[in-house]
Amino acid sequence: MPWSLEICHIGLLGTGDATLIVATFQDGDEEVLKRSSVLIDGGRSEATGMVEEVLAVYGINDDAPLGAVAVTHYDADHFNGVRDLIRPPQKRRRTDMYRDVRVYDRGRTQNVTVPAQGTTSRSASIIANFRNPATKNESIIHPYSYMIKDNCERNLVTRDVLSSVNQLRITTNARFPFDDPRVTNAGIRPPYWLIGQEILWNGENLADFHPDHAPRLTCVSANTYYRTVNGGVDVVRSGGLSRERNENINSLGFLLTFGNFRYFVGGDMESAQEDALLPYFRSLRNGNGPLLHAMKASHHGSNLSSSPNFLKTVKPNVVIFSCGQNNQFPHPEERVISSLHQYTPETKYYNTGENWRIDSEFGIPNISGVYPRNKDGSLIIDHQVNYHSHVKIFIEQPDNDTPPQEFSVNFYCPEAGPNLNHDANHDYVPARLRADYFTI
Ligand SMILES: [Zn+2]
């Protein structure tokens, strides 16, 4: 088995995203010769234990540390867990396996005053201010920024990226104001800086490991900018949104490729940004296969994402909803499920928050926000059940010269089948592992 790839959508308690991607190259004796791993988002703080449990299962530890972590955006259910993972060992007592992890995020959001053209006297202080994470404008990400600064500052790849065009206090009508020499001369990287960059290997030389076939994870959108067909970037802006939505539309998005297999993960991105990526996805397709074989539904299946147009154009084989056990939101939302049924009836979809597959075979699943509760009304939190709610995708090459021909989705489901309406009296039955197979 030469190259293989696993994508684990980690089952969390409550809402949140945490997706582990592991690419491995083995020789004929199945000895691991090359490996890299990227964690995309880390759920909420409470998710840390579960994330570390999964990392351990994949053999990621002090001797084989995590390669990179990507924070798609600054919502608590995505980046708080990352913050807590990378706490220094004296505070977290267990490991320093994140000491050298490369950290990618969407960049800094604080106010930056760029000097008037032709002046350089203030440049130094501007850069210093830009790199100082503690301003009241980013109080939400303040603890995260400090944790990075204390531990991974030198590995924060996106340290000099300024993410918010609105904070840029220059007068210009340019579509790409960050190309202004007043900005570039100040050493500030634009919000689209990460787009087009591969983060699984980060330029590492894979010459000894059949590099043409190696899985690759490439940033395709950031801060409302997105990758275009010709390898450039363009921007979709949405005005007048709430703070939450404004954060979501800035999510980083990544395309994972392995041979002809294509997978998309985009944080809590909304439809405007997703739809803008369609021409790029279309340009990658050869043959009649789907634009994407698998995708994590953005924003946990919210109907602000995964538009009917997006789904019917992409026609994914597989959609994963990262909703988490006992999710406090009614995710995935009915409109998204209905769109899947209506426009892509062949698509199979899975939910990290449920122990069973939900698909057309079972009808509309529990999407009403009714979740199992104790008699006193508190949510039932069952770690044993939660542990079994990861949804994993597995792919491997049949041999060194052949790209992967199929992928599988591994998940747990109860023997009982379609008891899709939770209620306080429902008894969980032992879950069992199942796998569905898809041709690439
Ligand atoms: Zn979220």
TrEMBL record:
SUPFAM superfamilies referenced in this protein's UniProt entry, alphabetically: Metallo-hydrolase/oxidoreductase (SSF56281)
Protein name: Metallo-beta-lactamase domain-containing protein
InterPro entries per the UniProt record, alphabetical: Competence_DNA_uptake, RibonucZ/Hydroxyglut_hydro
Endpoints of the signal sequence: none
